[in-house]
Design goal:
The complex is a heterotrimer of chains A (561), B (294) and C (369).
Chain A (H helix, E strand, L loop, with lengths): L1 E10 L3 H12 L4 E5 L15 E2 L10 H11 L6 H21 L13 E2 L9 E2 L5 H16 L2 E4 L1 E9 L2 E9 L5 E11 L20 H8 L4 E2 L4 E7 L10 H4 L3 E3 L20 H13 L8 E4 L5 H7 L1 H11 L8 E10 L2 E3 L11 E3 L4 E2 L11 H22 L8 H16 L6 H15 L6 H18 L13 H25 L18 H4 L1 E8 L2 E8 L13
Parallel strand pairs in A: 1-2, 1-9, 2-6, 9-16, 15-17
Antiparallel strand pairs in A: 3-5, 4-5, 7-8, 8-9, 10-15, 10-18, 11-14, 12-13, 13-14, 18-19
Helix pairs in contact in A: 1-4, 1-10, 2-3, 3-10, 5-14, 12-13, 12-14, 13-14
Chain B lengths: L1 E6 L2 H4 L3 H14 L1 E5 L8 H7 L1 H17 L4 E4 L2 H15 L2 H13 L10 E4 H6 L3 H8 L8 E4 L22 H8 L3 E2 L18 H17 L4 E4 L2 H9 L4 H5 L7 E3 H8 L4 H4 L9 H8 L1
Helix pairs in contact in B: 2-13, 3-4, 4-5, 4-6
Chain C lengths: L2 H4 L5 E12 L4 E12 L4 H12 L18 E4 L2 E4 L6 H6 L4 E3 L6 E3 L2 E2 L2 H9 L20 H4 L13 H5 L1 H5 L5 H12 L7 H8 L13 H5 L6 H14 L6 H15 L5 H16 L1 H9 L15 H13 L6 H4 L2 H5 L28
Parallel strand pairs in C: 1-5
Antiparallel strand pairs in C: 1-2, 3-4, 3-5, 6-7
Classes of the chains: A alpha/beta (561), B alpha/beta (294), C alpha+beta (369).
């Protein structure tokens, strides 16, 4: 029995999902959102530093400059047509957020304030103190409430329904009350974010388990650039809690154990505002070569002064005090690289369309690709808004020009059988050891620096973990709020995505952006590898393919900061 | 003797005169020389604080200025609401130069001395509990409470917001218990001792307020207390004068005597009825007096 | 994943918790004790994860970001709402304290530590929580807004909708229909937003029964809020704006205005007249029997002769001045926030007593000294 049928079903309620839903609703479609957590709990809300757009409020700027910075930042792997669209539409999209009521910080003239951010040629990161993501989540949810858009709240999207070579909706587990629900839709947009939980020491929430990417993978949809995981340079140890790039935008320094601003040896021009991959590699090198402090480097804000810290970096200070036990007004914060953002994801075109008809993807879980091999700070929030909007618009249009939705009965029945098998199992192992082992080994073998033998080993480790996963036991057999079940299902997603990432990582025999192979392939190889990896599940297992990079204006050049 | 500027507040001057008489009789025994502020007004309570916050700030700045003018460095209050109001105004003025300058300009223009931030505002409860206060108290309370079972009711605004009050842990306060025991009584514990009596809305939302009031009265009764003690005259009014109204919703006639802090210590210190003024209470304090007379 | 599990290089400690388990289908409640080994840096949330992973997978609670921004993990520790991800366990373990963990208050419990947030969101919706620019034409780009005009709502904008304030609201406990601190703070977020032009409608709505004047000023919400929103202050800002804009039909507003009148006429509160001025003559007459009983005990001071403060003309003059200066309404509250923000990084104002380990309602240890 199908719970309901909609024109557009959005999976995930972060910035991308909510923006897509709003756009589709305003285009006249019957829209619903499905989210395993309440929309305002989505991890977009943890974004801190800001959202990039060439508004020109802080200095001369242009979408073209923004685009070039993004292309260079991507280490020339980004698709330039998509990047140009992002940078051209960004200002209008940011103004729309403000007109809806987003509470931005302001310049003296009363315009939206912009701060400098990593690898940007001009200060273009529009911000709200250091809680920009929170402010955007709030304004988008307000607009969802205003339109009374239906949200399947605390429903866990578990499978895509595919029939007639089309995506027909989603099979979900109802977390609050239990039971499998089939929700049909003419178009489905996955906006489920990233998969940082693949790693120990991640900025990501527990909810970031790559659900949408796994759903797509299992439906045979192409995933792109899966090896590209960004390690954010300033995360707390051991948890990985994020300390915003905004600290560096306001002037913070990175020091090693000798009190040295070591970036002068790696990125002498941009220093602390170089690209994130460059800084993470620099930090990891300093730490590996013995100039770290207990496995960290030091982020020093003291010279900014109490007033500025309290006004612009209040949230950051709280995080440092609660999770690192230091007050940044008086002491430097120990930080290290942490898994943060997945540049890779579901391969889409500039409208969010995937290789499966009626399936769209937007936001972090998608790979358009606007970030290529490395993302600039502030561009992720912008991507969620611009491409969420575009996917919503296109999906609505498609839905309104098509009439049928077919959810085969077998889809729900099969799912119910699968759940029963899982819940009935009493002999086996609890998920936590598999999960923790996956995260620890990914950190060791597929982290900031990668090498052939370690990646090979990781592939074997993942296979062994998948064997163990086949016998995983769920303690909670009940219906009401059974997130023991959903957490076990999430682990399944993570294992499959890890497999894709390692496969793509081995295939790319060069160093580019976040994929750094200093021991075996230290240079960037534009002749052979100026192309995207594509991974797909087929009947004969995972297959790897390649896709060219779209180049419009900028030919690859040497990338230094 | 310690010289303290003393702010009586509205209720102690009017419906809660017994608070003033017992405090002023007790003070010398506690070693306090009180200089009552003459030219002051109501602190504004939560009402002026909410409705006209700038006026509230000026009224309290004026009180602080006159307190400073006495030469003392401490202003003693005997009401929770006055304490929070004065402490908040004091903090705002002492930590914002521009604000202080503006307020002082206004004060001076109407003939009030300017305020330089030299006052610390403390409730009588804290002044007693500071330092070796409990030891001193044992001597003062020479007649003793004879094991009287007393339930402390703190009242919201001497505990919260703790960043402005901060004398003790707002969730696990202990000063009243220590005072009860130092005076020879037995402290009775119960969950609602840190909750709200409902007084701020007792006029505008009587039913809601009574729903709150019921909790400390009922819990203290069921815990076997002989009396409740409170440091706030507004709570006292709720707990004492409105106690009879609880009968309508519960069918129970509670008869819990409510003592002001100064009366609790005062009766243990042997103050006269003319100073304690128990006759002014709505719920009779006779059972307590009889217990202690034995 | 539990970060706790993989970092074996940290020192570990033994942590004990008591958790109120609840099954809404049977209505059964039970207090269960759990003892686990955990790294010394863990939070309450980390410990719950260890319990769920290794001891009892049926334990139900919400979580997501683990960095105090998503608002998922609100729950009560020793009867007071906290964010589990923000609560470090080491200090409790050092003191030998075993906390009691239960679901947040004032909301129906679904299971264990999971509450039904439906009523919470219903009240948020009731304050029309989206920008209403009225008939003003929308600009092509952004609204021009000075930073100082954003400042009045910067605290309310911090709210992560965790429910900790609602959990502890004393007024809501007595009146479940009270809109409550989170919804009212959200209400002020719009009333105070210079781009919103629906002030009058909003204030009229919030001045209804179960609105602004239901707040009992217990300050539990300010105390519990993990983000420093200070919802009670937001409610006060709404009260100030209501009075300033003449939306003062509620008894609560009348009550407040009489305090102002008293301060500028006699200086001291004109206590006896407070009742008819707040509730009106008819209601006062209904209270006559009650009032007579109070009067017998001297609790109803005669309004004549009036108790007039010395130099009350200064108070009168100060009111006139403040009426003319530009700190009317909510701005009168906002002006103090710069100073109040400074409290966070200095010592609390006053000496913290070393109190014995007692949670109100538990049997206290014998007093010392």
């Amino acid at each position: 029995m199908v719970e309901a049928k909609h024109d557009v079903l959005v999976v995930g309620a972060g910035c991308a999902g909510m923006r897509a839903a709003i756009e589709a609703f305003d285009a006249g479609a019957d829209v619903a959102i499905i989210s395993k957590i309440h929309p305002v709990r989505s991890h977009s809300g943890a974004a801190e530093g800001g959202i990039n757009a060439a508004l020109g409020n802080a200095s001369d700027d242009s979408p073209e400059k923004h685009a070039f910075d993004t292309v260079k930042g991507s280490d020339y792997l980004g698709d330039q047509d998509a990047i140009e669209i992002l940078c051209n539409e960004a200002p209008g999209d940011v103004y729309q957020l403000e007109r809806w009521g987003a509470v931005f910080s302001r310049t003296d003239e009363g315009t939206i304030a912009q701060r400098p951010f990593g690898a940007a040629g001009a200060p273009r990161t529009a911000y709200a103190a250091d809680i920009t993501g929170h402010v955007l989540i709030q304004v988008l949810y307000e607009q969802i409430m205003k339109r009374d858009i239906r949200v399947y709240e605390e429903y866990f999207a578990w499978k895509l329904v595919v029939d007639d070579d089309r995506c027909q909706g989603v099979i979900a587990w109802n977390i609050l009350h239990g039971g499998v629900a089939a929700i049909g839709a003419k178009t489905t947009i996955v906006c489920t974010g990233g998969a940082g939980r693949l790693y120990v020491g991640t900025t990501n929430a527990y909810a970031c388990t790559g659900d949408g990417m796994a759903l797509a993978l299992r439906a045979g949809v192409a995933l792109e650039d899966m090896e590209m995981m960004q390690f954010h340079p300033t995360t707390l140890s051991p948890t990985g809690v994020l300390i915003t790039e905004g600290t560096r935008g306001e002037g913070a320094y990175l020091l090693n154990s000798e009190g040295d601003r070591f970036l002068k040896r790696y990125a002498p021009n941009a220093m602390e505002l170089a690209s994130r991959d460059v800084i993470s590699r620099a930090e990891q090198t300093e730490i590996d070569e013995g100039r770290g402090v207990d496995g960290n480097v030091l982020l020093d804000l003291r010279h900014l002064g109490a007033e500025k810290i309290l006004e612009r970096l209040h949230g950051t200070r709280e995080l440092a005090m609660v999770f690192a036990g230091v007050d940044p007004i008086d002491q430097p914060i120990p930080v290290r690289p942490g898994a943060h953002y997945h540049m890779g994801g579901v391969d889409t075109d500039v409208w969010g369309r995937t290789s499966l008809e009626a399936l769209y993807a937007a936001g972090e879980c998608a790979c358009v690709s606007v970030h290529g091999a490395n993302r600039l700070g502030g561009n992720a929030l912008m991507e969620t808004i611009t491409f969420g909007k575009r996917a919503g618009a296109h999906a609505a249009e498609w839905a309104l020009t098509h009439t049928t939705v077919t959810v085969p009965e077998s889809a729900q029945a099969d799912a119910e059988r699968e759940v029963k098998t899982l819940l009935d199992r009493t002999e086996g192992e609890r998920p936590w050891a598999i999960r923790d082992s996956l995260a620890q080994t990914m950190h060791e073998n597929f982290g900031v620096f990668r090498r052939e033998d370690e990646m090979q080993r990781q592939g074997e480790i993942i296979a062994a973990l998948q064997d163990r996963y086949a016998h995983v036991v769920v303690d909670d057999k009940g219906d009401v709020f059974n997130n023991d079940l959903t957490q076990a299902l999430e682990l399944g997603f993570l294992l499959e995505l890890a497999e894709c990432m390692v496969m793509a990582g081995l295939a790319r025999k060069e160093s580019r952006g976040a994929h750094a192979r200093p021991y075996d392939y230290p240079e960037r190889d534009d002749e052979e590898y100026l192309k995207h990896t594509i991974v797909r599940r087929t009947d004969s297992g995972l297959m790897l393919d390649w896709k060219p990079v779209d180049i419009t204006k900028w030919q690859p050049m040497e990338r230094t900061y | 003797m310690r010289t303290l500027a003393y702010y009586r507040g509205c209720l102690a001057s009017l419906s809660a005169k017994e608070l003033a008489t017992s405090t002023e009789a007790l003070a010398p025994q506690l070693g306090f020389d009180l200089i009552e502020l003459e030219s002051v007004t109501c602190c504004g309570a939560g009402d002026i604080h909410e409705a006209e916050p700038d006026y509230y700030l000026h009224l309290n700045a004026r009180i602080l200025a006159y307190a400073e003018a006495t030469g003392s460095d401490t202003l003693m209050t005997i009401c929770n609401v006055c304490t929070l109001n004065l402490r908040q105004a004091n903090w705002e003025l002492k930590n914002d130069e521009e604000l202080l300058a503006r307020v002082n300009t206004n004060l001076e223009s109407v003939g009030v001395p300017s305020y330089s931030g030299g006052i610390d505002v403390k409730h009588l409860l804290w002044l007693i509990a500071e330092g070796d206060g409990y030891d001193r108290l044992k001597e003062v309370a020479h007649k003793g409470l004879k094991g009287l079972r007393v339930a402390p009711f703190y009242g919201c605004q001497i505990l919260r917001p703790s960043k402005l009050l901060g004398f003790e842990d707002p969730d696990r306060p202990w000063t009243l218990e220590a005072i009860i025991e130092a005076c020879g009584g037995e402290a009775v514990d119960y969950p609602a001792k840190i909750k709200c009596c409902g007084f701020p809305i007792i006029q505008a939302r009587e039913e809601v307020a009574l729903g709150e009031l019921l909790q400390p009265i009922q819990q203290a009764t069921e815990a076997g207390a002989d009396a409740i003690v409170t440091p706030c005259p507004l709570c006292h009014l709720s707990l004492d004068a409105w106690q009879s109204k609880l009968e309508a919703s519960t069918g129970r006639r509670f008869k819990m005597p409510i003592l002001h802090l100064s009366q609790l210590i005062g009766v243990a210190a042997g103050l006269e009825e003319s100073e304690l003024n128990f006759k002014r209470h709505v719920v009779s304090v006779k059972p307590v007096v009889e217990r202690l007379a034995v | 994943m539990t970060e706790a599990a993989v970092h074996t290089e940290y020192a570990t400690m033994d942590v004990a918790l008591k958790i109120w388990r609840y099954d809404s289908s049977t209505g059964e409640r039970s207090l269960e004790t759990y003892e686990v080994e955990a790294p010394e840096w863990v939070t309450l949330l980390d410990v719950l994860d260890i319990v769920k992973d290794r001891v009892d997978g049926t334990l139900a609670y919400r979580k997501s970001c683990r960095m105090m921004i998503c608002g998922s993990c609100g729950m009560r520790m020793d009867g007071a709402a906290v964010l589990a991800c923000r609560t470090r366990m080491a200090p409790l373990v050092e003191r030998g304290h075993v906390p009691v963990i239960s679901a947040m208050g004032n909301l129906p419990i679904i299971k264990d530590l999971v509450v039904d947030m439906g009523p919470f969101w219903g009240k948020i919706r009731a304050v029309t929580p989206w920008l209403d620019t009225g008939y003003a034409p929308l600009p092509d780009r952004e609204h021009m807004v000075e930073q100082e005009d954003v400042t009045p709502i910067h605290k309310e904008a911090l709210c992560i909708m965790c429910g900790c304030c609602v959990s502890e609201c004393n007024s809501m406990e007595a009146d479940p229909d009270f809109l409550g601190p989170a919804a009212l703070a959200k209400g002020f977020r719009f009333v105070g937003d210079p781009r919103d032009h629906a002030d009058v409608d909003r204030l009229n709505n919030l001045n209804d029964e179960h609105g602004i004047w239901d707040c009992t000023r217990c300050y539990f919400c300010n105390e519990r809020c993990p983000k420093g929103v200070d919802p009670r202050d937001a409610i006060a800002k709404l009260g100030a704006e209501s009075v300033k804009q003449g939306i003062d039909h509620d008894m609560g507003a009348k009550h407040a205005k009489w305090f102002v009148k008293s301060a500028e006429t006699t200086g001291w509160l004109r206590e006896t007249e407070l009742v008819p001025k707040t509730q009106g003559i008819v209601a006062s007459i209904k209270q006559m029997k009650f009032a007579m009983n109070l009067a017998r005990h001297g609790k109803v001071p005669l309004p004549f002769p009036p108790h007039v403060a010395d130099r009350v003309d200064e108070s009168r003059a100060l009111r006139k001045i403040t009426q003319l200066q530009d700190r009317q309404g909510a701005l009168g509250h906002v002006q103090g926030e710069r100073a109040l923000a400074r409290i966070e990084h200095t010592d609390p104002g006053g000496a913290r007593r070393d109190a014995p380990e007692v949670t109100p309602g538990e049997t206290p240890p014998p007093a010392e000294g």
